[in-house]
Specification:
Layout (H helix, E strand, L loop, with lengths): L1 H18 L14 E9 L6 H24 L4 E9 L4 H13 L4 E3 L4 H13 L3 E4 L14 E3 L4 H14 L4 E7 L2 H16 L3 E2 L3 E3 L7 H18 L4 E6 L2 H12 L8 E4 L5 H5 L2 H9 L3 E5 L4 H9 L1 H4 L5 H19 L5 H14 L1 E2 L2 E2 L13 E9 L2 E12 L6 E4 L5 E3 L2
Parallel strand pairs: 1-2, 1-3, 3-4, 4-5, 6-7, 6-8, 6-9, 9-10, 10-11
Antiparallel strand pairs: 11-14, 12-13, 14-15, 15-16, 16-17
């Protein structure tokens, strides 16, 4: 009997030793799930406040959907969001990041702009914070970014897409009209390079300061370039590319739309200015229609979850943008990575995010990340603002798609012609 008791005690010690230090991401009946905070850096004020409002509404729904999923899978954690306003400035983003760190937050969704990501990336790396940006697209941030991921494709994809559609639409000469910051210059250079490689001509164009509100003088700089270009290449063969955010493009369109000379060119926009934000401004919409304004936008979401998201009352009260859908997916990827690692340290979280992203199909489609932590596959829609029966509408006039299986990208036009990009 004494031997049996001793053997029983030894067995218990062995079991205890074998389980000590082991964790599980499955909640047991006797344990309560722990709540893990995910920070969100959102431009609730500033030049992209409408995007921030939409992002804020969509991530709140993501929070609820994720927690339903975590409960259904008996996970050991639940998540809660803490949203900080960046004011759409690098300084504001860094201050918000520091505030999250002071609250003990290590997992962060955002920030939105590339200049903001560039400002906070070093701080994230130094303090063990992991980011998933839902809006930054600059190809090279030129800062250490071991802890930074992006669920949007970078502008080495958008630039060639814009250039290809322009060339297929008969644009022979491009005049860049560019926000003078890391985002504007990066996308302008990517488009300029691709346009030139496809046989197009690019003028010097102009750059405008970040805080510009009156665009008359900037337009006057490029006016001689437009006059010379239309004289040489003809009406309809000249394109003006506006690279900026909503707070830049809307007043610029209003300023240009009042001058009939600018109607000689075809005007083009980028994904950082939501097409719906222009449609929300009557004067800008009228100007955009006169200028034949066409904008590249990240492809719209898909599936039942996306349909539910867009039908939500709080979402419908905001201006619809693709950034909200990317932010929704960013919350999901971050939460599932936290669950997989039991909300472990930043190293474990950083290693888990690419695995989760490659196996998760979001409302924005395949979210696989490449070697540097950016989205691998790029999909864009091109929308043109037109007047139809007295009403201004957006019309999808081209698509850019990357096939996840072959990696080949194509541009499809309404005529159903398909142009292979790579």
């Amino acid at each position: 009997m004494r031997k049996m008791v001793l053997l029983g005690i030894v067995a218990l010690i062995v079991v205890a030793a074998s389980t000590a230090g082991c964790t599980s991401n499955v909640q047991t009946e006797t344990t309560q799930p722990k709540t893990v905070t995910i920070g969100a850096l959102v431009p609730l004020t500033g030049s992209s406040a409408s995007i921030g409002a939409h992002v804020n509404s969509t991530i709140r729904i993501a929070e609820a959907d994720v927690n339903d999923y975590l409960a259904a899978t008996n996970a050991s954690i639940r998540v809660q969001l803490v949203v900080k306003d960046t004011g759409m400035t690098p300084e504001g983003a860094l201050a918000a990041m520091q505030a999250l760190h002071a609250e003990g937050v290590t997992a962060v969704v955002g920030p939105y702009s590339s200049s903001a990501v560039k400002a906070v990336a070093p701080y994230a790396n130094e303090n063990g914070m992991v980011l998933i940006s839902y809006g930054s697209t600059v190809p090279s941030l030129e800062v250490p970014r071991e802890n930074v991921f992006r669920v949007v494709p970078d502008d080495n994809n958008q630039g060639p897409a814009i250039a290809t559609v322009m060339r297929e639409r008969g644009v022979k000469l491009l005049i860049p009209f560019v926000r003078d910051d890391v985002y504007g210059n990066g996308l302008a250079n990517a488009t300029r390079t691709a346009f030139g490689q496809q046989g197009g001509v690019v003028t010097e164009g102009t750059r405008f300061a970040v805080n510009t509100t009156n665009f008359t003088s900037a337009l006057d700089v490029v006016r001689p370039q437009l006059t010379e270009a239309t004289a040489e290449y003809g009406l309809g063969s000249v394109g003006v590319l506006v690279v900026g955010y909503e707070g830049d493009t809307v007043p610029m369109l209003i300023a240009a739309g009042a001058d009939p000379q600018w109607s000689a060119a075809r005007w083009w926009g980028v994904e950082a200015t939501p097409i719906n934000a222009i449609l929300a401004n009557v004067t800008a919409t009228e100007s955009a229609a006169r200028l034949n304004y066409t904008s590249a936008q990240q492809a719209e979401g898909q599936g039942e979850r996306y349909d539910r998201l867009t039908q939500n009352a709080s979402v419908q009260r905001t201006i619809q943008t693709s950034d909200g859908a990317f932010a929704y997916d960013a919350v999901w990827i971050m939460a599932r990575a936290l669950a997989e690692t039991n909300a472990g340290n930043s190293t474990a979280l950083r290693e888990a995010i690419p695995r989760v992203a490659s196996s998760y199909t979001g409302i924005t489609g395949n979210t696989t990340l490449n070697a540097v932590g950016d989205r691998t596959y790029a999909n864009y829609d091109f929308w043109t603002i037109r007047s139809q029966n007295g009403t201004y509408v957006r019309v999808k006039t081209a698509q850019f798609r990357t096939d996840p299986l072959s990696g080949i990208s194509v541009v499809q036009l309404p005529s159903m012609t398909t142009v292979v990009v790579r």
